[in-house]
Amino acid sequence: MTDLRELFSPTRLPGLSAHGRALLRHLREHPQAPRFRDFSGHRLGLAERWQARARHAWWQRRAAPDWLAGEPLPAWVGPFVARCAHGVDAHAGKAALPFAQLPTMDRHALATQLAAHVPRSLPLDELICFSTSGTTGHPLRVPSHPRVACDYYAHHRRALALFGIVPKAGVGDVGIVLAGFQQRCFTYVSVNPLQRECGLAKINLHPGEWRHPGDRAAYLDAMAPELISGDPVSLAELLRLGLRHRPRALLSTSMALSAGLRAELEAAFACPVLNLYSLNEVGPVAVEVPTLGGFVPLQPRLLIEVVDDAGRSLPPGERGEIVVTGGFNPWLPLLRYRTGDHASIVRTPQGLMLQGLEGRAPVRFRGADGRWHNNIEVTRAMAPFALVRFALHQRADASLVLRVDAHEPLPALAARLRAALAATFGDTPIEIAALRADDKVRQYTSALAGAETAR
Fold first, then answer.
1. Is residue 298 within 8 Å of 159, Cβ to Cβ?
2. Which domains does the chain show, CATH number per domain?
3. C-alpha span between 338 and 252 (Å, rounded)
4. Is 176 exposed, middle or buried (0-12, 13-18, 19+ CB in 10 A)?
5. Most buried residue, 31, 55, 194, 409, by CB count within 10 Å?
6. Spatial separation of the C-alpha atoms in residues 74 and 77, rounded to whole Å
7. What is the rounded distance in angstroms from the CA atom of residue 325 to the CA atom of residue 335?
8. pLDDT tens string 101-130
């Protein structure tokens, strides 16, 4: 039996209406509902909701910065740097430096000196710290706040608008389902106070979290969410469920989404699939628009650079590490923060765009003829396949191991995968194996000397 005091907690859900209460009970107590393990809520009072609406309206009217290296900085950057220099211990003394000479910061600095990066003047009574995985970098706790969680909504709306979608869910509707697929994850129901208390559910599609195997499809069909968000692992699981419901859009975050899987999802659900480039430290950075050939930046107050190993901004079209300044989280102002991801940045008639986006440090792989190949060549070779995830490793003897997570049987897929890699690497020995890790894995690794260049 649901603990209604917890479900309707005025601390978590201030101002909850009668129709909001009814929707929460429907989400949680439906006969096919999963085992919800937690309680959560927006924690926004009336004044904070109006402030959020004002912020969101301002963002909707502003474009992302149209700035490239060597051009005059946007007007807001100078004051932002000054506030960081005077109010954030980690940035003390930086106000007098030209922007191009500001040192870069990285995930290691946040992992080891997090308190020094939180502004001294901000209240800490409602501070939230989210833990992030360390499988692709240093384990990290990200300081946040209920208003920050609310502001993700505004930037997702900006992304949806690029595909002609304006969310319509309202009273009695389920606006979004956040779908995971893990042995165990945080699951709850809530409402969106900025969209007439439409419903939100964070669910785990792992079969062990449901009473019966068929309940997953039955529950999603009954809730009929306007949007479904997940990562390629959980979205691929949706393909196996036989859903009748068709959301207006799917949002993919957290991991790289292959072009093949996106095409299969779009065909199955007859809706766009948004491939979001998003980080826990920054929030949604950009969204891929395939017709434009790259990722379109989303945040009006996030300056994006592409830099070399020494932290120097690179000219348009040159490939380097993505560095960001600004963001919408006041509790974690970022000043030339190295994301660990790589791309080039160009100006198009539609504005700035990130092209060739790849996560984490580049890795080179050696072919049978001794030539080196960038990992982006591997990404392109794998793009036609509807893979949930893949990871490529080169052993010390130069042989390759490709591990894949796919809903197509591996024996039927292996020959085509091997042929796709052989087109780049020649007759290098290639082993194909299943990828069964429950969490994120590093996509590209090598035991060969010279495969990776340290910063």
1. yes
2. 4-60+166-271 (no CATH), 77-147+278-358 (no CATH), 364-446 (3.30.300)
3. 22
4. buried
5. 194
6. 6
7. 5
8. 999 999 888 888 899 999 999 888 888 887
